[in-house]
Amino acid sequence: MTSVVRPDGPAKLTGRATYAADTQVPDVVYAALTPATVPFGQLASVDMTAALAAPGVLAVYDELPPMPPMPSPMLGHSMIPLQGKQIHYDGQPVAMVLAETLEQAQYAAGLVTATYTDVRRPVLFGQGEEVVPAGGHTFHPTDESVGDFDAEVKLADHVVTATYTTADRHHSAIEPAATIAWWEDDQLTLHTSTQAAGLAQMAAAMAFEVARENVRIVCPFVGGGFGSKGYVWPHVFLAAGAAKVSGRAVKLVMTRAQMFSLSGHQPATSQTVTLGATAAGKLTAIRHHGVNAAARVDQYTEFTTHASTWLYDSPAIDVRTRIQEVDRPQPTPMRAPHEGPGVFALESAMDELAHRLGIDPVELRLRNQPSVDPLTGQPFSARSLVECLQQGAERFGWADRKPEMRDGDDLIGWGMSVSTMNTFRNTSSARLRVQSDGHVVVETSMQEIGTGLPGLVQLAAAEILGCDPGDVEVRHGDTALPPHFGTVGSISAGALGAAVQDAATAVMEKLQASPGRSLADLVGASGLEFVESEGHWAPDEKSSGYSIRTYGAVFAEVRVDADLGLVRVPRIVAVYSAGRIINRLAARSQMTGGIIWGYGQALLEKSVLEPNLGRFLSRNLAGYVVPVNADIQDIDVSFIDEEDRIASPIGAKGIGELGATGVSAAIANAIFHATGRRIRDLPIRIHDLL
Ligand code: MOS
After folding, report:
1. Which residues contact residue 154 at a Cβ distance below 8 angstroms, ignoring those fewer than 6 apart?
2. Same domain for 235 and 175
3. Looking at the DSSP assignment, which residues form a beta bridge with residue 58?
4. Same domain, 383 and 329
5. CA angle at residue 41 from 37 to 42, to 5 degrees?
6. What angle, rounded to 10 degrees, do the helices at 584-603 and 453-465 form?
7. Which among 208, 351, 611, 644 has the fewest CB atoms less than 10 Å away?
8. What is the distance in A from the centroid of ligand 1 to the CA of 228?
């Protein structure tokens, strides 16, 4: 079987699935935050008199007991609010109110006033100095090269060079971040919206200096994360800290506006790409230098240049990543981090080169395919990009592309791009139990963030057990269950799938399974009530010698109204090479969602920063525009039949982020084809085309 309908669907549709803020806790008190209104400065005073006198208010805190700074930004950035006087960003909490009702807390939070010293105008992106990032975000080298770029580019027949920019973007998940926290002696329980329960557990244990086992995180379902719930954010520390000081259960739910400052964003980037090539369209030099806006704490780094080291064969490749430290809240990974903004620049430049050379854009990519990783010389674990390009072109009808295509007032353009993601891998585990009635239970701390992981677990288990996937019940989302690193970085299909199969294999060995006998029979024969085993997976040493990535080819048709500049995208065709696809239905849904996400990056999404206040202005979904159904027309997704047993024993790699790469370049390239306008700054707006 290669598809199941998501087993979590009915619970979600009927409201039975519990999200963090849904949890009913007796005697809970409500917290609300007062934000700083300056982008930089020192907190001089906080006046809480009026707030303390307001109805229902139990306490107002402008400081919580000291917590040690977190050793990694994943565990919560090194600047936890209510821990000092330094203001790093507009919106940083300067006070927290606890009250009997939510309305009382919010009202009183608005009565708290603060004064500041050393306030200055914010340093903005484009004004700061470029520096080499050195903080906890540098999980790749910042500078990588092979060959002699300067020598090669001088010899090239053709050189294109251009600077591309991407905008500040916010994740805008339906569910705002939320935490309910309470202490029983030195035991802390947190119902918190997280993509990685284990990280939240570790962070809370460190912050409150208790053992990890003393912290329990519960979070079965996440109402959209897209990266905003991967790292641990201030609300976790604030809710748990207030619960400790007050002795009450504390509920803290971010407002939509607070989601624009307290749960990360994808920072604006500026990237310069230079490509040198022979007249025959063979790349000889690739340079990709990128810089992103970073907060002053922790130096968040967007590795926009990373994919330029593995996509194309070239004797010289030179990539460099820099940041600018500016006054703003902390950025974080956002679907798709790094390659999402980076592939836009590289694949726009490839289109510019194809146009310059008079070579078809698909053909230019085909002429530059490497046989091994161009930077490291490592073999690829699995790479069917050529097939993606060929099949995608076929499905789209690319051969019929004409230099000019028009339909009435509509200028029609066809553009394409490669998609790619590095395959990030991490650890996972699961416990699998077969009961005497044949019912199977799989338990893991994993969060279901909307990607359909419970269905994947069913299929992975059923394949080994030889049972119906519907017989497999999946319990998830609690650190009391076997740890899964996180529903982040597109790791889960490969990691959790492998861990579940490891557990299932061990159970089948215990059962001494022989073909033709049902699970119920086998357990019955063992004389036990159930048979269970725990399975694990971690990336092995041998696989680290491979270049493990995912790929795709995206083809877009745009229609640009010649008079109005309005862009429509009537169809997108995408073909992916991403290892084994375990649940075709859920995978198709993931890629469709990724493409819609890429559509947003291309045409809609931009968080405008007010330059005097250093404040994101559009802090709601009216001002921050994301795609809606009316924007979306035909999306045709397919996969190359492929397995990658080097990436994971189940043969799967992650796809959640892959789908969001390449789309913006395909649309921008299609707009160039339609209009002759090369727009290098995202999002592309109507006024860019008038
Ligand atoms: Mo992801 S951007 O690690 O949810």
Report:
1. none
2. yes
3. none
4. yes
5. 105
6. 150
7. 611
8. 7
Residue 1 is predicted with a pLDDT of 58
Task: Please state the length of the chain.
Answer: 690
Is 195 near ligand 1, meaning CB less than 6 Å away? yes
Angle at 67 between CA 63 and CA 72, to 5 degrees: 130
* C-alpha torsion 123→302→625→35, nearest 10: -50
Please, are residues 7 and 78 in contact by the beta-carbon 8 Å criterion? no
C-alpha 27/C-alpha 1 separation (Å) is 48
Neighbours of 613 (CB within 10 A): 14
Distance from the alpha carbon of residue 177 to the mean position of ligand 1, in angstroms: 15
The response to whether residue 337 sits with its C-beta less than 6 Å from ligand 1 reads yes
3-state secondary structure of 83: coil
**Minimum CA distance residue for ligand 1 atom 4:** 227
The total domain count for the chain is 3
1 in a domain, yes or no? no
Q: What confidence tens digit (pLDDT) does each residue in 90-134 have?
A: 999 999 999 999 999 999 999 999 999 999 999 999 998 899 998
Query: Of 494, 510, 538, which marks where a domain is finished?
Result: 538
Q: Which helix (H) or strand (E) holds 198?
A: helix 197-207
Q: Are residues 243 and 280 in the same domain?
A: no
What pLDDT does residue 196 have? Answer: 97
316-326 and 130-131: which strand pairing? antiparallel
Residue 89 and residue 261 in contact, taking contact as beta carbons nearer than 8 Å = yes
The helix/strand/coil state of 415 is strand
Q: Are residues 149 and 178 in the same domain?
A: no
Structure tokens at 175: 């569910």
User: Are 289 and 271 within 8 A, CB to CB?
Assistant: yes
- Are 86 and 235 in the same domain? yes
Q: In Å, how far are 207, 323, 418, 487 from 491, measured between CA atoms?
A: 27, 26, 21, 7
Selection from 113, 115, 117, 116 nearest residue 60 by Cα = 113
* SS3 (DSSP) at 342: helix
> The domain spanning residue 645 has which CATH number?
3.30.365.10
pTM of the model: 0.97
10-residue block means of pLDDT along the chain (690 residues)?
89 95 96 97 98 98 94 88 95 98 98 98 93 84 97 98 98 96 98 97 97 98 96 97 98 97 97 98 98 92 97 98 95 97 98 98 98 97 98 98 94 98 96 96 97 96 96 98 95 96 96 84 90 96 95 98 96 98 96 97 96 92 92 96 97 96 98 98 96
Same domain flag for 551 and 566: yes
Same-domain pairing of 480 and 513? yes
Contact between residue 132 and residue 142 where contact means Cβ atoms under 8 Å apart: yes
**Containing H/E element for 497?**
helix 492-510
For a ligand 1 pocket test, name from 488, 491, 492 the mutation site with the most ligand atoms within 8 angstroms of its C-beta: 488
User: Is residue 680 a contact partner of residue 347, using CB atoms and an 8 Å limit?
Assistant: no
Task: Kindly list the distances between the CA atom of residue 340 and the CA atoms of 4, 99, 118, 435, 602, in Å, as whole numbers in the listed order.
Answer: 29, 42, 37, 44, 11
Q: Catalytic pick from 325, 339, 557, 657?
A: 657
Closest CA to 655 of 336, 309, 197: 336
Residue 152, Cα to own-chain centre: how many angstroms? Answer: 36
- Separation CA 456–CA 472 (nearest Å): 11
Q: Which domain holds residue 430?
A: 426-538
In sequence order, the 6+-apart residues with CB closer than 8 A to the CB of 400 are: none
Q: How far apart are CA 471 and CA 216, in angstroms?
A: 29
Distance CA 424, CA 439 (A): 33
Is 657 one of the catalytic residues?
yes
How many helices (H) and strands (E) the chain has is answered by: 14, 27
